[in-house]
């Protein structure tokens, strides 16, 4: 449903592309759930899932999980850049709206 990539620059200068996806809301009984799928070292190895009474409310905590991932990278001394340029990513807004 939504995906974001960032270029991670480690303290030793090595780089990697990190990706995180939020899956589409799925039905879980009477509720809806969204999977958060980090890969390439962006987040935990597990796939956290956020659940709520409707699709929108399931998306909101999923976005919170995604916001925490870049902040954890920065706390470890790494820098995050957009994949195609050298501009820094905004860790508090990983899915900015179109300008």
Question: What would you say this structure looks like, in words?
Answer:
- This protein has 99 residues and is α+β, with helices and mostly antiparallel strands.
- The protein is elongated, with a radius of gyration of 14 Å.
- It starts with a strand and ends in an 18-residue tail after the last strand.
- It has one helix at residues 55-75; strands spanning 2-9, 15-22, 26-28, 31-39, 49-52, 79-81.
- Strands 1, 2, 3, 4, 5 and 6 form a six-stranded antiparallel β-sheet that branches.
- The model has no long low-confidence stretch (mean pLDDT 78).
- The protein contains one helix and six strands, in the order βββββαβ.
The count of helical stretches stands at 1
Average pLDDT, all residues: 78
| Residue windows where pLDDT falls under 50 for at least 5 positions | none
Work out the number of β strands. Answer: 6
Order of helices and strands: EEEEEHE
Record keyword descriptors for this entry:
elongated, 99 residues, 6 strands, 1 helix
List the helices and strands and how they pair.
Elements: E1 2-9, E2 15-22, E3 26-28, E4 31-39, E5 49-52, H1 55-75, E6 79-81
Antiparallel strand pairs: 1-2, 1-6, 2-4, 3-4, 4-5
Summarize the structure.
21% of the residues lie in helices and 35% in strands. By secondary structure, the chain is α+β, with helices and mostly antiparallel strands.
């Amino acid at each position: 449903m939504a995906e974001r990539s960032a270029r991670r620059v480690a303290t030793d200068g090595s780089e990697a592309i990190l990706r995180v996806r939020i899956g589409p809301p799925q039905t879980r009984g009477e509720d809806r759930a969204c999977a958060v799928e980090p890969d390439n070292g962006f987040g935990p190895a597990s796939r956290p899932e956020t659940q709520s009474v409707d699709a929108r409310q399931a998306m909101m905590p999923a976005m919170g999980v995604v916001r925490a991932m870049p902040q954890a990278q920065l706390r470890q001394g790494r820098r995050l850049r957009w994949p195609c340029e050298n501009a820094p990513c905004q860790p508090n807004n990983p899915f900015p709206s179109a300008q």
